[in-house]
Amino acid sequence: MYELKQYQFVKESRDILFEYCKTIAPQDFVNENSSFGRGGSLRNLLVHIANTYEFWIANTALKKNVMYAEYGANENILDIIELFKHVDNFMSEFLETIETPNSEIECKINGMKKMVEPFKLFSHVITHEYHHKGQILSLSRHLGYIPVDTDIMR
């Protein structure tokens, strides 16, 4: 199943980002810059990524009732790493379920019920993560750091 392998690539790339974030000063990690979205800080963008996995995968696809991670409850990169361990756990569960052929998941998009393929949800959350990973690296450059290469192909 390619999805498992692809998510492994996502996690490897994410781990490189996390190692890089360990080099960022704590005050810079939580420094908010409105040019990078609502409350755009490195920490807030990472929590937002996790929230998207929580919404689409845990709560929508798996029908769990996961409480969304809060920005303030994740004060540093070690908290974020722990948060993503939870994301990885329900992603593992989700990736096991999408092997069922012709399965669809009911969700609401703009208030309308729709049926979507699990692979579409999977594609959405990982492309969303990469979009914000780019913002995180750009924001770190704005703060005076030299971003690392987090591409899958490096």
UniProtKB/TrEMBL annotation:
InterPro entries: DinB, DinB/YfiT-like
Keyword Metal-binding in annotation: yes
Domain of life: Bacteria
Annotated residues for binding of a divalent metal cation: H48, H128, H132
GO molecular function list: metal ion binding
Alphabetized UniProt keyword annotations: Metal-binding
PANTHER family on file: DAMAGE-INDUCIBLE PROTEIN DINB, SLR1116 PROTEIN
Family: Belongs to the DinB family.
Protein name, per record: Uncharacterized damage-inducible protein DinB (Forms a four-helix bundle)
Organism: Pedobacter insulae
